[in-house]
Design goal:
Elements: E1 4-13, H1 19-30, E2 33-38, E3 44-50, H2 52-64, E4 70-80, E5 88-90
Parallel strand pairs: 2-5
Antiparallel strand pairs: 1-3, 1-4, 2-3
Helix pairs in contact: 1-2
């Protein structure tokens, strides 16, 4: 199965609640590569690549988020994988 990519913008109470590290753990558990980072507007950006089935599960996980957070909206865009990442990291 060919890897694919998702670009996600997550809005809600997602900064200062451990959301990036929740995403990091979920991505690494799923064997995904890419990054997660906070944006100045209070949202979180995620770029992840891997098998479609794992990304679909990952998308459900980030839609729920950690207990301390509150996800109000997730904007997802699917595209072809570029293969540019070797691991999944928190970006600053």
């Amino acid at each position: 199965m060919e890897p694919v990519r998702i670009h996600a913008l997550v809005r809600g109470s997602v900064q200062g609640v451990g959301f990036r590290y929740f995403v990091l753990n979920a991505a690494r558990t799923a064997g995904l590569v890419g990054f997660v980072k906070n944006l100045r507007d209070g949202s979180v950006e995620i770029l992840a690549e891997g098998p479609r089935e794992e990304l679909e599960r990952f998308a459900r996980d980030i839609s729920e988020g950690p207990r301390r957070g509150l996800v109000r909206d997730v904007e997802l865009r699917w595209s072809k994988s570029t293969g540019e990442f070797e691991s999944f990291e928190v970006s600053f």
